[in-house]
Design brief:
By secondary structure, this protein is an alpha/beta fold. It has one domain: TIM Barrel, CATH 3.20.20. It contains 13 helices and eight strands. The protein has an eight-stranded parallel β-barrel, surrounded by five helices. α3 links the parallel β3 and β4. The protein is globular and about 50 Å long. The mean pLDDT is about 95.
Length: about 300
């Protein structure tokens, strides 16, 4: 199983009646695979997981597996505030045929160390599926410390990767060191495309916020970093940083508007995320033009 490279994290398309458009979602999955992602995870926060019902999330998991059709590994995000809810989604993801699950510490509660460990073990300990642990302090209020991650690696043989949204090189480097020290085949990913700094210390790729807008840019950045081609990677990393600065404002509505500009419309986001203003749309369009995205990336599906 290839766990190296870009992890595609699709948005969730909604129609004019604010319902999930499952056919269009399948088209997004196919687009990402054809344009070079190595894995797909859904629904991440970019996919508005916390804006959807459990039934919608389960149906999207089934759609993801069917659309990927075994071409790349598929991971279903199952984070919830309650352990039993995460477990139910995890069991469904496995029955649907997903490769594995992505999971954070529980939302809101800010549990102590032992409760966090228990949460992961209860949900994934006996699950016949791979696990990506997601460290997101801003969303959960707690950190999966390096010491806790060692404990999880020891207790969960199905632990396959870590998604780190701390964006702190001290933390990420320590995780890479501990994985290497323990001789584990565990993939450390950065939460967005900070590849030039993460790959040299052992990073195996990233979750991508930009791939649905500019897949060529993101995949070429990863390939340059993996080949240790710093001369090529540096300007690509700087361009990605500028693109992220644009797309992460009013996220994920801005990403969806940028996709519309690229001929891949997926509708609006659900409230409380509001549509872009006219000025914001003009800024996004000018930025994509200035960065060369409009001229160098695929148009349409």
């Amino acid at each position: 199983m290839n766990m190296n490279g870009i992890v595609g994290a699709p948005t969730t398309p909604f129609d004019q009646d604010n319902r999930v458009n499952y056919d269009l979602f399948a088209r997004q999955v196919d687009f990402l695979i054809k344009n070079g992602v190595s894995l797909i995870a859904h629904p991440m926060h970019i996919g508005e997981s916390i804006n959807m019902t459990g039934d919608e999330r389960r149906k999207l998991a089934e759609c993801l597996v069917k659309a990927a059709a075994g071409r790349v590994p598929t991971f279903v995000h199952v984070s919830y505030a309650a352990t039993y809810q995460s477990r139910a989604l995890a069991e469904h993801a496995r029955k649907a045929g997903a490769t594995g699950i992505v999971m954070m510490a529980p939302y809101h509660w800010r549990p102590e160390r032992d409760a966090i460990i228990d949460h992961f073990v209860t949900v994934a300990g006996d699950l016949d599926a791979r696990l990506i642990v997601y460290n997101n302090v801003k969303a959960t209020g707690v950190e999966i410390t390096p010491e806790m991650f060692v404990d999880l690696m020891q207790r969960l043989p199905n632990l396959a990767a870590l998604k780190d949204a701390s964006f702190l090189m001290d933390y990420f480097s320590e995780i890479c060191r501990l994985i290497d020290k323990m001789g584990k085949d565990v993939a450390p990913y950065t939460g967005i495309e900070h590849l030039l700094t993460s790959v040299p210390v052992g990073g195996r790729g990233c979750f991508s916020a930009c791939a649905e807008v500019a897949p060529n840019l993101v995949v070429n950045l990863y390939k340059a970093c993996a080949a240790n081609d710093i001369k090529t990677a540096r300007p690509l990393q700087f361009k990605v940083k500028e693109l992220l600065g644009v797309l992460m404002k009013n996220y994920p509505a801005t990403i969806k508007y940028a996709m519309e500009l690229m001929g891949r419309p997926v509708g609006l986001s659900r409230k409380p995320i509001l549509p872009l203003t006219a000025d914001a749309k003009a800024h996004v369009k000018e930025s994509l033009k200035r960065l060369g995205v409009l001229d160098t990336e695929p148009r349409g599906w």
